[in-house]
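Give me structure tokens for this 391-residue protein.
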Amino acid sequence: MRTTVGIIGAGPAGLLLARLLHNAGIDSVVLESRDRAYVERRQRAGILEQGTADVLRAAGAGQRMDREGLRHDGIELRFDRRRHRVDFPALTGGRSVMVYAQTEVCKDLIALRLAEGGPLLFEAEALAVEDAGTDAPRVRFRHEGREDVLECEYVVGCDGFWGVARKAIPAELTQVFERTYPFGWLGILADVPPSHDELVYARHDRGFALLSMRSPSVSRLYLQVPDGTDAEAWSDEEIWDELERRFETADDWRLERGPITQKSVTPMRSYVHEPMRHGGLFLAGDAAHIVPPTGAKGLNLAVGDVVTFARALAHQKESGSPELLDAYSQTCLRRVWQAERFSYDMTTLLHRAPGATGFEDRLQLARLERIASSRAAETDLAEGYTGFPFG
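Here you go.
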């Protein structure tokens, strides 16, 4: 099998890249190790930056998002039983975010790919990227019980942290930067309308909490818990009681409870792999970088990567110049490190580290007070949350 771009992974990054390339008249093949049902139901991110939503619209994949997604013009910060709303459009010249689950993005892009695009192979396990450092890389994969080879001009690894793409870059050529956090998020899905119409980020002496949503009838909520926590060790009642404590305010706001349909624990880490390119192999998304979920940056960073690659390849096709492709890693990493900074700042602003001292607690409160009282500090948060420019 032969194609111009071999894409490993049919998450939102791989699927969007395939769509962008199709629109640019560039052929590609997408290999996904899981079946379609799994891809369309795995719960991941749910916040789309302004730039991500705009890219989906421009790619012809935004109709259902605009019809069913929830535009959010701000978030609420809670600390010391106080509430402070950050108004995104007022601080950023009109920018906002969209609540639209990653599962729905994937459904939309899969439908378009199958209707209008090229090959999308489910249950096609990528086994290795061969000759990655050359201008003729190959992906060896297993599909329908037999091994095959996909010969490419370029391979883009959108296969996540545990995928094979990154492993094809020689260790002596790489640098890895990472930080692990001594806590995680206990996340739940609940069949109850959200108790607030925007996301609520709460800093509390007992730990962080987040009120989010997946739809007008489904709430998504998170609690900071120690690293290694077993989600099933928490009863539903204990979860709701702890959420109530951490979201407590001085006014009459109340948290609505409902049936919990799913619970899981997400570990927290920061990770960057440099470079993001080796010869004909390009890394995108979690294959190259991971951020703690506090800043809602993971999916959006992956979108930035594939937009950068698609633009660079289209530029080479039109002009014959490889300049933008050669700059891929450097271009992406500038945005990646800004997102790493923002996500780290949000994480350390809102989470209470084990053994934190009174001094550290007061510093957190002082940082939150600064955001609540300074337009400059508030603008910096709003600009970071709604998204850094692509390219």
